[in-house]
Amino acid sequence: MLWVVGVQVWLADLLHQFNCITMMLKKYAIQLSYSVSDEEKEQADKCLSYFNFLTKELKKAEDHLDLIYRPFKDGPNILPEQSWKARAALWRFRDANVEMFNKVKKISFKCFSILNEFSSDSQVVKLNKSFVLAISDIEKQVNRFADLFSDLKSKEFGASVIKSIENIKKEIAQIQQIIEDRIMSYIEDNILNRTWVDGVSKELQQRIEDKIPESIRMVQEREKMNSEESSKQ
Predict the structure, then answer these.
(1) Which stretches of 156-195 are DSSP H helices?
(2) Domain range summary for the chain, segments of one domain joined by +
(3) pTM (2 decimals)?
(4) Is the pLDDT higher at 44 or at 233?
(5) Residue 155 — φ and ψ, nearest 5°?
(6) 37-190, what's its fold?
(7) Is 32 exposed, middle or buried (0-12, 13-18, 19+ CB in 10 A)?
(8) What is the mean pLDDT of residues 217-232?
(9) Which sign does the torsion angle of CA 51, 181, 132, 139 carry?
(10) Count of CA atoms in the C-beta half-sphere (13 A) of 213
(11) Who has greater pLDDT, 76 or 72?
C-alpha cells in the first residue's frame, strides 16, 4: 500500500507541475498576442499560404529551366546549326518559361498586396520592399534569357544560355531566402506569435497525456492485485 500511496503522490505532484507550466505558457502567449486581432491573424495565415504557393511555383519554374540547362551544360560544344535546327522546340521552351514566370509575377503581386495590409509595421514595409526588388531582379534576368533566343545561330548561344540560367537560379535562391527566412519567419513570430511557446506547450501536453494514463493503469492493476490478495485471506 505504501507503494500505491507513493505513486499517487507522484501523480498528483506531476499534474500540479504540468498545470503550473501550462498556465505560465498560456499567460506568456496571451501577452505576446494581445495586440493582434483575429482578423489580422486570418490575413497573416492567408499571407503565409500565398507565399508558400509562390515558393512552389518558383521551384517549378527553376526545374523547368533544368530541361535545357542540363543538355547545354553537359554538351558545351553544341553547334549553332544544331540549335537552329531545333529552333521550334527551343522557342516553345522559351515561351513556356516566360509564361511560368508571368504566373510567378501574378502570385507575387497577390503576396505583396496581402502583406501590405500590415504596412503600419515599419518592418513589414522593409520586407515588402526587399521582396519587390527581388522579384524585379528575377524579371530582368528572365527577359535577358528570353532575348537570347532571337539569335540561335550565335556561337555563344549555348554558353549564354548556361550563364543566363545560372543567374536566374541565383536570383531565385535569394528570393527564396527572403521569403522563408525573413518574411514568413516574421509573420510567424511577430504577427501570429507562433514561437517556441506553442511547440513546448504542445510537447509537454503530449508527454503528460502519454505518461499519466500508463501510470494510472499501473496503480489500478496494483490495487486490483491487493484487493484480490485481501479477498483470498
Answers:
(1) 157-177, 184-186
(2) 1-34+197-233, 37-190
(3) 0.68
(4) 44
(5) -70, -20
(6) A middle domain of Talin 1 (1.20.1420)
(7) middle
(8) 64
(9) negative
(10) 5
(11) 72
